[in-house]
Design goal:
Order of helices and strands: EHEEEHEHHHEHEHEHEHEHEEHEHEEHE
Number of strands: 16
Strand order of the largest sheet: 8-7-6-9-10-11-12
Oligomer: single chain
CATH architecture of the largest domain: 3-Layer(aba) Sandwich
Number of domains: 3
Amino acid sequence: MFNIKTLNKISPVGLDKFDRSKYTWGDDIENPDAILVRSASMHDMEMPKSLLAIARAGAGVNNIPVDKCAEEGIVVFNTPGANANAVKELVLLGMLICSRKVTNALEWVKTLSGKGEEVGKLVEKGKSQFAGPELAGKTLGVIGLGAIGVKVANAATHLGMDVLGYDPYISVDGAWELSRSVKHAKTLKEIFEACDYITLHVPCNAETKGMINSESIATMKNGVRILNFARGELAVNADILNALESGKVAAYVTDFAADELIGKEGVVVLPHLGASTPESEDNCAKMAAAEIIDYLENGNIKNSVNMPAASMPKSGKARVCIIHKNIPAMVAQITAVFSDNGLNIENMQDKSRKDIAYTLLDIAQPVGTEIADKLDAIDGVVKVRII
């Protein structure tokens, strides 16, 4: 029986994927084999010795100590693409809101309450202050062509926009899904100089943090509109506000609230609504549950943020899963344990990701705990599991 601990409310659609004859789950589970989490912070949490995996029902994993988990042999999964459509729709809404000054118009109309028959005349007189451009015929720059960026780019072409996409790390699947109408930008400079709208869909790391700053903004078109539904730290808020005040930037739409942005002219701040749809929550929960099930039952890893991807069909009498450091002679030492004990390896896969590696072996004969002990004794082995 596998034990699954939930740190947040997880969609029942996802929990229903667990076979009740094999799994038990809840927020009061002790000694869990896996944890399902959404936004709860795990940085100060002491990881149970029993813990094998954490699945984040969402794309971002800032609330999980990913590197620490890797050191302890805990696989961390996320659910890329599960909330992509929800975010795409909100990005399109953001473009329309900041173009047509919808939020300002809504607030202004409220001030007309009680004006009676004057309302019609006041509307006709005051509506010009909320005039704004159409999207059709404008150029959109999409920075990051992952699951969300591709959907945004494709949808924008159907709105009549010219779309430039930039992503030096685009996946094969992303490239296949991208509309032929989306033009390839080779540099960020091309995006900044050519686009009327710029939308960000990249992770926040050392390379991307603060990428929207005074220097990059200076190279953009006058009146550019910037949308950030990826991570708040991608933009330097002080530089955004200065550019709004000077008129260089016409609008900034973000899903990441910060005190200095709230109530500022030209800024539309949303309370992190990107994935806040029932469909998105269901999709994320189902994907997270499927990842945990495949890892616990088969040792397969897909969509991990701290371990290499590895999967193969099961064969033989036992499957041995070994997380180890990515150092020379590890595979030789591992396979020697089996050959020295008269065990035949039917199938094997070894994958690495930076300093960590993962080896899957299907063995023709049953494998006892004494083999696990011998593998665990190898210097550099982090965790051994026999399925």
